[in-house]
Amino acid sequence: MGSIPENPEPFPPYEVIGSERIYASKWCGLRRDLLRLDDGSAQEYHIIEIPDAVAVVPVTDDGRVVLIGQYRYPHGKTHWEIPAGRLVDGEDPREGALREVREETGHVPRSLEPLPGFYAANGITAHWAHLYLAHGCQSIGAPQPEPCERIVVRVFTREEVEALLDAGRIEDAFTALALCYWLRRQR
Description:
Elements: E1 15-24, E2 29-36, E3 42-49, E4 53-58, E5 65-72, E6 77-81, E7 84-86, H1 93-105, E8 107-108, E9 111-119, E10 128-135, E11 138-139, E12 151-156, H2 158-166, H3 173-185
Parallel strand pairs: 4-10
Antiparallel strand pairs: 1-2, 2-3, 4-7, 5-6, 5-12, 8-11, 9-10
């Protein structure tokens, strides 16, 4: 592998003229900032505030991946995903990863390996997703989803995961990106 290119030189932040919280709940918030642009003009910028999240690729000792079929209310679809969720009140990302795998799949991993994280929608939020690869996952019981979660658990081979990705059947960005990182590590 060649050298890794550096990020571009950072721009100075915009001057914040004013800020107003429009909405806040335990799930999300909406803030309206008024920014001074480089040309001296002012512009509104709306920020969605979402707690950071964790997403985990659970892999069994025989190399299969545990996915969940989850119903998503905003678009009304059920599709395959990796276990994921928001971190709770300053929760350590590793602890959140272990919690999500256990709750959503009924599995526990032998170890966790961090994968590169990402901003889920950096044009509108600073929401950060911590990604992990969970090695040696073993079933210890039934999933324990939250009351608003509808989940079914299934274990897939690497070939099945690749087929789902190639066919565009992995529609969740957290899942698609995390599975691509996992697959690159398999080479």
